[in-house]
Amino acid sequence: MGGYLGMPDYNGDDGARVLQNLGKADKTQDEEFDLHVANFTKQQMVAVKLQKELKNYLQCVKAMSLASKVFYETVQESYEDSWTGHSDMTGAVEALAAMWEDYVLKLTHQVQDPLAAYVARFPEVKHKIAKRNRKLMDFDGTRHTRDSLVNQKKKDETKINKAHDEMNAAKKIYQEINAELHEELPNFYESRKSVLSSTLNSLFSSEAKFQEESAMIKNTLADATERLSKESSDVFFKQFNHSPHMSSNHASTTSTPLSAGKLRHIPNDNSSNHSSSNHSSHSNQDDANDSVTIKSDTKKVDYFNRTDVIEQPITNGDADINVPSNRTPDAYITVDAEDEYESIMIDSQTMTSHHICWPVKRITANEADNVYSVPTKHEPVAKDTVLYQVEATHPYAGEDTDELTFETGDLINVIPYADPEEQDDGWLMGVRISDGQVGVFPENFTKRV
């Protein structure tokens, strides 16, 4: 149904519901087109947000890829050549680095690039919609002028014929672009299903493959380190059980009863009055009454053959320690001479372990990353750029962000387009004098001053 405009059908028998607002503000209404524009706007918001979050996600993946590469290279360096599973460790680290690189490339080429191409189409369609709206205003303006001439008491046929020709020309241009958008907008809206499904499928498939292969490599590393752990445990206990030093000093270095507080060296004045047999007979009873047990690291020193380890008497501190008379004269703990230690508190039940405070690296964000620049306001237009001045003869409400809104009698300075190729026939670029707002407006709604 063409209606007043005699416009062609766009959707078969249903047709386009084109209405007319007849009166002073004579304006063509197309409800079906408005629905297409609403769907397009919603579609654009979803796509732009998805692209933004995908970009952030991919940046995190790249950062994780680099962190994984550096970390596992360090693990490989710490895994000595003579250890069991060294070849497995080397191969797994290299394979894992290659997997991360392939994973990042797939996310970039199969997910990010197609989504970017999809989002890039929105500005083109949006520009076409804005152009269609301007052509509609041209058509309504010429029709309004023709109707005004026809309704005059003293008719000028020459002006009427000229206005009629201008109206038909504007109508033809408007109908062509309007028909294209009536077909293009629904098709573009339906394309969101195929684009998003294909993009997300590539994302999930790449992640599933990466995680599956990564899990296999991690299992290989776990098996290698487990074999090494079992071998080192067997050697450790064998050396521990056959060490003369450890056998003779086991009772004195592996358990020493302490009261709560700091540690200090307590000489044993009664050690000469007790034989080694008495020490052995009372060992189990003393261990049962111990409130705290300090385990010696001497076994670890023997195993690793450390040369930078010293034994120091526990001499610092001022808390009382009740040491049974059958203990050896001095109690020792094994410490690393080059390492720094923090003090530890010992309660009546157990000795808590160290809490090491690792240094935290402060990361300063790059000010150039992900920072939105605030657009500046319109600067005052220089007088030499003003072509001429016009006065509004009819009120006009701008329908796009780049259009001016004005009332009858408002003064506007006409200025040249920044890009002359963007200028449409019948439209001017101007500055509203009342507030300095810059935008385009229909020429036939104004007159020169």
UniProtKB/TrEMBL annotation:
UniProt cross-references to SMART domains, sorted A to Z: BAR, SH3
Q: Which UniProt keywords apply?
A: Coiled coil, Cytoplasm, Membrane, SH3 domain
Q: Where do the BAR domain residues begin and end?
A: 18-234
For this chain, one GO molecular function annotation is: phospholipid binding
Start and end of every SH3 domain? 385-449
Spell out the residue ranges making up region: Disordered.
Answer: 241-292
What the entry lists under Gene3D superfamilies is as follows: Arfaptin homology (AH) domain/BAR domain, SH3 Domains
Q: Name one Pfam family in it.
A: BAR
Query: Any one cellular component term from GO for this entry?
Result: cytoplasm
Q: What is its main location?
A: cytoplasm
Q: Where is the composition biased (Polar residues)?
A: 241-258
Q: Where in the cell is it found?
A: Cytoplasm; Endomembrane system
Q: Where is the composition biased (Low complexity)?
A: 268-283
Identify the InterPro entries for this entry: AH/BAR_dom_sf (IPR027267), Amphiphysin (IPR003005), BAR_dom (IPR004148), SH3-like_dom_sf (IPR036028), SH3_domain (IPR001452)
UniProt-recorded name of the protein: SH3 domain-containing protein
